Amino acid sequence: MTQLIKQARLSIVTLSTISAVFLAIASSNVNADRHKNDPSQAMIAVLSASSAHPSLGDEARTFDRLIGTWDCDYGFYGQDGSVSHIAGELKFGWVLDGRAIQDIWIAYPQSGSKERSIGTSVRFFDSRTKLWRVIFVSPAYGALVTVQGGLEGNRIVLRGDDDQGSMLRWSFNDIQANSFVWRGEKSRDSGKTWRLEEEHRMTRRSTQSPGTEMIRELAAGGAHASLGAQAQIFDRFVGAWDLDCDFYGEGGKTTHFQGSWVFGWVLDGRVMQDVLIDGDAQSRRGTTVRFYDAKLKEWRIVWIPPLSGNVITLKGGAVGDRIVLLGRDVNGSMLRWSFNDIQADSFLWRGESSSDEGKTWRTEQVMRLKKRRSV
Question: Given CB 3.0 to 4.6 Å as the disulfide criterion, which of 42, 113, 327, 352 pairs with 361?
């Protein structure tokens, strides 16, 4: 969260009546119909979930109590001990069949700026490691941070590393029904000493429908103007696509599934997010968050699949009339994911891997996609 809010600084439930219940239901139905029939909002409709998936059990409680909107007093500690403050808000909501929680961190405009700072996290419980894994993205400042952890006594503690190799410790403290304190600490000596960089005080905002506020805030009607021509690289995929997918095993075995892939702009149009749906299993396989890093002049991609836990990060962009993204899998092998034969109503997606640093490539997955005419 440091780069989201610090850069902004530098740039200086209960319904009371039955009628209110019917009003909330009617509003929800209207929004659902709008999302269902609007290609630009289709991704939001399939991303959202009303509650935690039963498979999470007691682990759901770790973050479920934070669902809703929080007013924020962001505090930042300078090297000289000074503290500066920025106002904002934080929203949490369940996504991906209730297997993950997505949040939005917002800092209100500062020093005459007309734009807010905004970032998002996707967090899921990894059943293999028995830890919550959190992927935080701040597109305006090129931040992509991963941390992991869980409950430690009455706190939630998450640990990871930043882009410079410093250790991070993010924690939720003094958690009450209507308040908590978030702290961000950093260590540059492998954890021997820690410096408090951020301390954010959160107060719950009383609202009629806390479970749906994050998803409504997340949606964007189109790409942010700052993306310029880069927006067109992924903007043409907005909406829903029917897919046929084949997986090719090393032993020659092929498996197949059908489903859909749904794309949409989020975070004020700074991020393109998607949801990959397995139609055979009637489940969301995962979500991809992609943003253009102006410093690197590349698109940065993170694929987040709660069921497998195999989070993948890649970088790339347009190569001729294709889109090519490079990264590594969880075992260290090189990956090459590409969008090919791109037409207005169809394209071919190919996933390849290399175990010899790119000398040879093996096709692992092919998806054939056709634009869905009716969302």
Answer: 352
